[in-house]
Design a protein that fits this description.
two-stranded antiparallel sheet, 18 helices, five-stranded antiparallel sheet, 398 residues, single chain, Lysozyme, mainly alpha
Length: 398
């Protein structure tokens, strides 16, 4: 949900080419019929879809999402930096009374709400200005995630049918996300609330409505009031990096027995909590133990980079310091062709990186980790020039 978007839109099965726009009119006709079959008023459908246009720009942006084209160091430094932390602290102070009341009602602390707000729209400074119906129709007619975006388009039409929004208001991110916290239309339908009592949920110009809606959504996703998102940790020398990965969980006491410590060097708490270890920049970068609320953030946006950025931003707003071990900034940027070639080579050697799509997602990282482990190397899942050479590939320039 962001001008990059919420809910899981950072998916990994992206074909190399987009469909030609020539079939767009026929696709829109099919979408119109589906909307009518769903019971949406014909007058609303015709007004909404009568003028939609195919957007090459939307397809271009869909194919180069930053979570798959930037290193973790680049991604984090662009989103959680001193200027944004300063802005976030000011926003927290300015709106503390409101946000604390919302936190009391929904159980989501104010500094997390401000962290989401900052990452989604730079605290409301940019909510997007792309025509939502054009974006959703274009993506619904694209094979990458046609069914998902078709459902979102139907949700947008229902918003119009219920007179919750006007066509002119439907402007936002390239992926169809709306308002201060970048809700997709289905989330708007199900979780937007009227906090200020004016009879409508305004996610653009009413911070009470927008922040309460975000908290309402996070609560519905399972936010745990008794836990933080996770924490930076220090790993011992010789740590078995193959234990890392979101799909691997251990109680905190087991991580403690393995020598994992808090970032300040102290022992991990003995709380009865499950945690997964993430090393998004490999063994040269920071390590994190992440808890259930991290998974809630990833339901909002299925990017580990995004969820780590939200968590770190929330920590900074809660007066915790910068990372003890910052990510390296000299990681080579792997272009799509190199990643796809790497995926194909891994697959040919019996490892499963998922569908070769040129995007370095969790499945590919897991395959890299297994490949490294089998060759007696540090199995941190982070490609380096040596690994690429082992696969018969040339390393890209830094």
């Amino acid at each position: 949900m962001r001008a990059a978007f919420p809910l899981a839109l950072l998916l990994f099965l992206i074909p190399a080419t987009a469909p030609a726009a020539e079939g767009f009119a026929g696709c829109v006709a099919d979408l119109r019929q589906r909307a009518l079959d769903d019971g949406i008023a014909a007058s609303v459908v015709d007004r909404a879809l009568g003028g939609v246009r195919y957007s090459d720009r939307v397809i271009e942006l869909d194919r180069r999402q930053p979570e798959f084209t930037e290193s973790f160091g680049e991604y984090l430094s662009r989103r959680v930096n001193e200027q944004r932390v300063k802005q976030g602290k000011a926003a927290l102070i300015e709106n503390r009374s409101l946000l604390n009341r919302i936190a009391g009602q929904y159980g989501v602390p104010a500094h997390y709400l401000v962290a989401f707000w900052g990452l989604e729209t730079n605290f409301g400074n940019y909510t997007g200005n792309m025509p939502t119906l054009d974006s959703l129709a274009t993506l619904a007619c694209d094979p990458r995630r046609s069914e998902y975006f078709t459902r979102e388009l139907m949700a947008a039409l229902r918003l119009l049918d219920r007179r919750a929004l006007d066509v002119e208001q439907l402007r936002g991110s390239w992926a169809g996300a709306l308002g201060n916290f970048q809700f997709m239309p289905s989330v708007f339908l199900d979780h937007a609330v009227d906090r200020d009592g004016d009879g409508r949920a305004d996610l653009w110009d009413s911070l009470p409505d927008a922040a309460a809606s975000a908290a309402n959504y996070l609560r519905a996703l399972g936010w745990r009031t008794d836990q933080r998102w996770g924490r930076e940790v220090l790993l011992p020398e010789g740590f078995a990096y193959h234990l890392a990965g979101l799909d691997r969980r251990k109680p905190l006491r087991e991580w403690r027995q393995l020598g994992v410590r808090r970032a300040d060097g102290g022992p991990l708490p003995l709380a009865d909590m499950q945690a997964s270890l993430l090393v998004p920049a490999g063994h040269r970068g920071p390590a994190f133990l992440v808890y259930e609320n991290f998974r809630v953030i990833m339901t909002w946006n299925r990017s580990q980079y995004y969820a780590l950025a939200v968590g770190h931003m929330a920590d900074r707003l809660a007066a915790r310091g910068p990372l003890v071990q910052p990510p390296p900034m000299d990681e080579p940027r792997l272009d799509r062709a190199t990643v796809e070639a790497m995926q194909r080579r891994l697959k040919a050697k019996g490892y499963d990186p998922g569908e070769p799509d040129g995007l370095f997602g969790p499945a590919t990282r897991g395959a890299v980790r297994a490949f490294e482990r089998d060759r007696g190397r540090i199995a941190d899942g982070q490609p380096d020039p040596e690994l690429l050479r082992d696969l018969g590939l040339d390393a890209p320039a830094s």
